[in-house]
Amino acid sequence: MSSGANPDKIRRALDIAGSVATIVTCVVLVIAMAMRYFGPATRPQARPGPKLPKAPISLDGARTRGNPSAKVVLLEYTDFQCPYCARFARETLPTLIDRYVESGKVLLAYRSFPLPIHHFAKDAAMAAFCAGQQGKFWEAHEAFFADQANIKDMVDSLSTRLVLAKPTFSACQANEASKQVDADVAGAQALQLTSTPTLFIGTLDSTNMLAAKQVLIGARPVGEFERAIDTALQQSMSLRH
Q1: What is the pTM assigned to this prediction?
Q2: Distance CA 202, CA 215 (A)
Q3: Which pLDDT score is estimated for 87?
């Protein structure tokens, strides 16, 4: 008897191996196409940012901090429930305030842009607006970003935490707060904003409107904001001469 392998068994083994190789190849191709289309789960594809608006941006109704006569403005569209907004507020904004706002060089302005995916963001924006009616907007801004994980409880307890007049605070929430937040959102949509934080940096024109020179999106390194602001400051100096 021959000790060689059975030809039929060899053919069956080769057929099975070929089928397995085909399946593996198809799976690899599908994964590669999906990764190319969707991007890695931890590094989603970046969306194109909004274009710089040709028309000046009104600051009417915006909460501001700093020197009202400053010729450079940093306008922030933010969402109190957005994690990137919180990172910007905690890690980047304090440096910009210390260097530019407190020195009188830059006026910091805020507008609400609560995204639909964040269920408590509009309530927080309304509460912050009403705190601002009693002169404590920036304290509310800091409080929400300091304890973002408990934002719902923060909304409910804000008037107590900031020692606000509760009847005035409640009346504001029931009336003008929603209108102001909706107006901010409408303005953001007109600028074609889709994400937060979005920050415009530019100079004030002769009608006290923001002529945006640069737009930055997300919790970027502080150096990027410093370079953009320094450029705007240089441009504002050249406009004076």
Answers
A1: 0.78
A2: 9
A3: 96
